[in-house]
Each structure stands twice: as C-alpha cells, then as structure tokens.
Write a structure and sequence with these properties.
about 30% helix; alpha/beta; single chain; 2 helices
C-alpha cells in the first residue's frame, strides 16, 4: 500500500508510519504536509525509507490563481527580485 497525506500533518502518527514503512506494512509514503513545517534538517522524517516529501503544494488551484501567481513571479523576476514562490533547497523544498 502507498500512504498519501495531503490533509493535515498533525493527523498522522509519524512513529507508527515509520514502523509501518520499515516493517513493510506500508510500501511507500507521499507526504505533502508534515506535523511541523518546515521540517528541521535533522528531523527523522527526512530519513524515512521509500518516502517522497513535497512542498505542501496540494490544493485547489483555479485558472485565476495561476494567472495571479504567474504575474507576481514575472513582476519580481523582471524587477530583479526573487519570486516569493521559489523552491528553497536549503529548507528541504
């Protein structure tokens, strides 16, 4: 089974998930939300086996939202600023 959480990070018992991943009851996990965000660099979540962690990006997106976000990013880039919606590899996503 694959465990996917796109809801609330606090609803998952991370210790139980880790145990289930390690003993094979859960084959893989995809986590878009975590109990604490951003997760600290030393958070055990980063070492969970067969786990993908995304940037808390799931949700309902309308065409208008995409247009507004794109325009804001474009404005920042053309003004020589870093867009607000930028991946921060140092923070883990």
């Amino acid at each position: 089974a694959t465990f996917v959480n796109v809801g609330r990070g606090a609803t998952v018992d991370m210790g139980a998930l880790e145990t289930a991943l390690r003993d094979g009851r859960v084959r893989r996990a995809v986590l878009d939300v975590l109990p604490e965000e951003p997760a600290a660099p030393d958070d055990p979540v980063w070492k969970l086996p067969r786990t993908v962690i995304t940037s808390h990006s799931s949700g309902i997106t309308t065409d208008e939202d995409v247009s507004v976000d794109f325009a804001a990013c474009w404005e920042a880039v053309t003004a020589g600023r870093r867009p607000e919606l930028t991946v921060d590899v140092g923070r883990g996503y």
